[in-house]
Amino acid sequence: MVVVLANPPVVDQIPLLRSPGPRDSFSCVPVVDLSGPGAARAIVDACERFGFFKVVNHGVPAATMDVAESEAVGFFAQAQADKDRAGPRASYPFGYGSKRIGLNGDMGWLEYLLLAVDSASLSDACPVPSGAAFRSALNEYVAAVRDVAARVLEAMAEGLGIADAAALSSMVTGAGSDQVFRVNHYPPCPALQGLGCTATATGFGEHTDPQIISVLRSNGTSGLQVALRDAAQAQQWVSVPSDRDAFFVNVGDSLQVLTNGRFESVKHRVVTNSLKSRVSFIYFAGPALEQRIAPLAQLLAEGEESLYREFTWGEYKTAAYKTRLGDNRLAQFQRCSI
Length: 338
Description:
There is one protein chain. By secondary structure, the chain is of the alpha+beta class. It has one domain (about 25-285): Jelly Rolls. The chain has helices at about 40-50, 60-75, 80-85, 130-160, 170-175, 255-260, 315-320; strands spanning about 15-20, 30-35, 50-55, 95-100, 105-120, 120, 175-185, 200-205, 215-220, 225-230, 235-240, 245-250, 270, 280-290, 290-295, 310. Strands 2, 3, 4, 5, 6, 7, 9, 12 and 14 form a nine-stranded mixed beta sheet that branches. A five-stranded antiparallel beta sheet has the order 1-8-13-10-11, with no helix packed on it. The longest helix is centred in the middle third of the chain and has 29 residues, at about 130-160.
């Protein structure tokens, strides 16, 4: 089903991009079988090489994913006035939004729902979505993907040789953990019609995720791109082949600090096309606001110093809200010796 915005806005504020060619497809995305015996080592290897990987055999029923997607498509198919009524008010930034990403001038060809999560379900303080069927479907999905995130972090701790298997997962499942869930819809962009297949519009501009990890799933429409670096450290954007049955995991800024730079948060973006809608779900696994973020002692070699000054997640989150998407948020927390 293709959903189109009821009142298309002027798109001259949204950057157009050249789409990577066929040879720029990231065909070697690391794949982690979460049910397999080699998951721990595979996760660490993928995080060290790319900060990004795909998870299969994750155990989330296809019906859970399909129903949530169907309900999301139905929500975005509503009249614009109905969607606007779900926009943020006292609960800012949570609720419905369109085109504008944050408060600092970033724009994208998308509409979205940004939702707060308490424990394993949507927060009661966030009344959107109000429809019982949609809310129920998202709660079932959130509970399932939160479990996937915890299992990934437990396997990661094992692969890193951390004695406490819950050292990372407890940060995102413990009391007060700061979890966020986002539903993005990228409609076909009419401004691209007649420009050829090499043109795309910015759906969500390049950025890294500030949390520990994020877990993404989308429908069968491509659009996700990640920035890889070659031997000369030159940045190259590559397209990630879509897989609606899998989850994609990003290393976030906080995990980069917790591993003292051993893992690097991956820069990524989403582009749109003129033909097909993309619907994606992203679960952002963050710790409690008071959680101290600093390299884990178990991961520091003898004599190795932290590359970052210690901060709380609340401090970092506040700083992140003041930046543009593409800014290096960690720069102000790096030690001068880097």
